[in-house]
Specification:
6 helices, 2 strands, mainly alpha
């Protein structure tokens, strides 16, 4: 059973991470390492804090694993050009969020971000 519960701390952390992601996509877009890798590592952290902002989940390890699986599914969907199949306009916000190119390196970045979460977040 899903228990909805707002957590201000996780919400504020989500906002901070979102701002960092926007800065990576705009201000630091010319720094290859930051744009290509760091953004993917951080995005799983954003998903974690966003879920924890609104849903009470006791087992953080299961949530982290679920976020990794979700991230891999989104990446796999990119392999099949899901953004184009959904009719998303290139350059639109949704097109950027869904993504447009599959990469094993992205999956490795998601794994690194999840590993960092696993090491930094209490297991409970």
């Amino acid at each position: 059973m899903i228990k909805l519960k707002f957590n201000l701390t996780y919400f504020l952390i989500s906002l901070l991470i979102f701002i960092i992601e926007v800065l990576i996509a705009t201000v630091f877009k010319h720094i290859f390492f930051v744009r290509a890798y760091l953004g993917d590592v951080i995005v799983v952290m954003l998903l974690f804090t966003l879920v924890k902002s609104f849903v009470f989940i006791k087992n953080n390890s299961k949530l982290i694993f679920g976020i990794f699986i979700f991230s891999c599914l989104v990446e796999w969907a990119q392999y099949f050009s899901i953004a184009e199949k959904l009719g998303l306009r290139q350059g639109s916000i949704m097109y950027i969020i869904v993504g447009n190119s599959f990469s094993w390196i992205d999956i490795a970045c998601y794994a690194a971000g999840c590993l960092l979460l696993f090491l930094l977040i209490p297991k409970k």
